[in-house]
Amino acid sequence: MTKIGITCYPTYGGSGAIATELGIELAKRGHKVHFISYDFPFRLNKFYDNIFFHQVEITEYPVFKYPPYSLSLSVKMAEVVENENLDLLHVHYAIPHAASAYLAKKMLGDNRIKIITTLHGTDITLVGNHQSFYRITKFSIEESDGVTCVSNYLKETTSKVFKINKEMEVIYNFVDTEKYKRAVDISKKIIGPADEDDMVITHISNFRSVKKIDNIVRVFYRVSGEVKSKLILVGDGPELCRIRNMVKGMNLEDKVFFAGVQQDIVSILSISDLYMLPSESEGFGLSALEALSCEVPVIGTNIGGLKEVIEEGKSGYTFDPDDIDSMSEAAIKILKNKEVRMKMGTEARKRAKLFDSSVIVPQYLDYYERILNV
Ligand code: GMT
Prior knowledge:
The chain is α/β, with parallel strands linked by helices. The chain is built from 14 helices and 13 strands. A seven-stranded parallel beta sheet has the order 3-2-1-4-5-6-7, sandwiched between helices.
């Protein structure tokens, strides 16, 4: 039994989702998991044996224009390591978690705790490579005892961008295919204005510009001219207002439904015929894997790790995220032909099973053992 501290962003987002699902899977296997963060992770929505939560307090003080969360996190990490006798701190998303873990390790004395950092995507491609974070990101990756990347793409990008020679392990995102399973006999009316004979295109994200939701709307505009269809956009974030205005400007208001943040993703995916993720880049593309698991073919970006997830032409297609023509053509092909759609759905499910938690979680456990025994 290993005692593991997990730090992640607790709010909506792929890195927090995968960190929490990992914690749940580890706890199921008898390990003790201690989440350390400023809030309860969003996927931890019921009681689990072997899972504990330690809240980092954010201290307000008049001289703090920006309360130093990273420092409070370090102190909490050190406290939890000592009080709970942890073996390992596994931090998800480099900034600031890997740096906070490094400080905790130093406070505890060098050999007390091992740190594993999992890189997810934007911590490398958007934020980490920004001038104001570059050095600390490089430093804390190099100082981690172990580093995992969610795709080969991310590993190569990290090595190249940060000029890092360190060994890094690729461990893909995973999905519980028993939980993420297409439910039959769900009415298309469960969410939004779709009719039973509408083809439903879905996208789920935290509405940041990296997701290129405007391109989904552009593709949908073309698709809806050819196929009776609806677009369901699930989530909330900085782009929501702009996308709403765009939809209005294109007179698509009666065909595009903004569902907001939703918990029951399986039901939404179960009424979906196509999932879209044409992001600027994706470290992996967890939401696309969850769609595949529910037999939904994916049209997504060819920049990043999604190419390692989708089997081109079988379970979906990847394109340049600005290639509206090709994405529209592929979407129309899938949505117009039931046979194509069904076949791709079956392939999607088969593909997802390669990333089942029963396949991937043991890879994390092996890696933990290797790092703990160095
Ligand atoms: O992009 C998101 O929706 C959230 C983001 C995050 O940082 O939480 O997700 C990243 O981590 C996921 C889990 O490993 C990956 O599947 C996503 O591809 C990655 N997002 C990007 O690289 C844009």
